[in-house]
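Contributing: when you submit paired examples, paste them exactly as shown. First protein:
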Amino acid sequence: MPSLAVILAALLLALPWAMRRRWRWGPHPLARVAGRILVFFGLTAAAALLLAGRPEAAVRMPGEFAPAAVFAAVWTGIPFPVALPVSFLVLAMIGGGVVAGLIARVRRREPMTLGDVSGMVPRRVSDLGWGALVSVVAGVGEELYFRLALPLVLSLLGIGAIWAFVGSALLFGWAHRYQGVLGITATAVIALLLSATYLLTGQLWIATVLHVALDLNGLIVRPLVAGMIRR
């Protein structure tokens, strides 16, 4: 079994490969994006958990994260564990996306975004399925990588859980550098919020669902309502 240092090195080496634009496997540009995320984030994270002997962490929050969970509870003032109204939050996010799309449509402008995601937005109705695929794969793969595997391996190597999540959030922002400085900053903040969600609920699936909803909002809902997607 490889050492934790080797597993960490593999995780970090997968990061730049996940962002490469020369990945050519897939029938559509967005399918290729989903393929990169699936292989270099999702499958790499799953392999890291297996090789570290911690596959159960995917369904049960590791004890190593307890200090970070306590910090998140103190920082937010929300007691741990908390039961979040996931369905309500998802509906609120989608509803906000619809409103933002309608405002953009009335003003005849593209919806405002906290970064340049134009290259990821479907431009035709026939592309919507690919956009949805990217949203789901990114939500699942990136949460496994940035909210679980990477912080866990860092924690097992002796880095405090709090700093492990901070470092992972910074790398999450860097992974979205194609969105520009504003996008990097926004995604790093989103990473911290998703980390807090995971730590306060103890459930990775909740952070994953919110991540998927966030991506669907940005790639599908707002552009579709705003009239950006052609037939």
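Second protein:
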Amino acid sequence: LVVLPICIYIIIGIIARRLNWIKDEGIKQTNKLLYMLFFPIVMFNNIYNSHLAETFNLKLILYLLTLSLIFYIILILLVPVITKDKPTQASIVQGIIRGNLILFAIPIISTIYGETNTGTVSMCVTFVVPFYNILCVILLESKRGHDIRFKKLIVNILKNPIIVGALVGFIIKSLKINLPNVIEDILGNLGAVLTPIVLILLGASLKFQSIKKHSLYLAFVCTVKLVISPLLFITFGYLLGFRGQELTTIFAISCVPTAVSSYVMAKEMEANGDLAGEIVTFTSLFSIFTIFIWLIILTNLNILL
């Protein structure tokens, strides 16, 4: 059910492009608006609206962040063997690292344990999403098509709208500042339109002739993202003693398809935007089957619930 709206939004974008309602220039301008305004707002909202004290689990957070970092480093070393093109490398690594946690991970836990038991996964998402974004901003800046000095790289990272949104959110949350209700409502409404717009633009931007060209990259990303990643995260989590809802949270965070925002980031930061959009589409479609299969396997092994 989570995947169905994603597919519908993408199809709307494809139809809109075929009817010539959306053109390249409009897509480019809207991507810029999403990147500069809507993404920072969503990052801010995620942090500002979190309830960390209620479900804080330091061991689980450290496990997720540490293994994610190790996985990220391995991919940075491995992917250049597959392709020498830096923008393509950036889109592949980002496509594997960044997960659609809010749209998928939280609903998975809600389905298994009920809507009132999503505190642990929500807490983890609060830390993991900014961490993934920081890693991917560093990645995309370093893989741009031109040489860049370390000092300029750091400045560009700190100026990135997504990082700015996260930092402002952490500062206001740490200072326990409560915004007026009208401001909260405005920010919430702006954040709510992000995913549908991104997916419609993604559909409008899909170039079916390039899918065949990128087929090997797509197969690699889908396999690593939807099969190898959950296998590693669940196995090491189990060996380290995580059980029950903690292990299910690890599963939910590691098995999800690529974040829709990775497409816009790839477009705006000079990565392979076409490939990034295709990765979002195909990981979302294949995740329908892989998540279901993972749930059957883990439930039968009695290590999930």
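If you have annotations for the second protein, write them as plain sentences, like these:
The chain has one domain: 3-300.
The chain has a mean pLDDT of 87.
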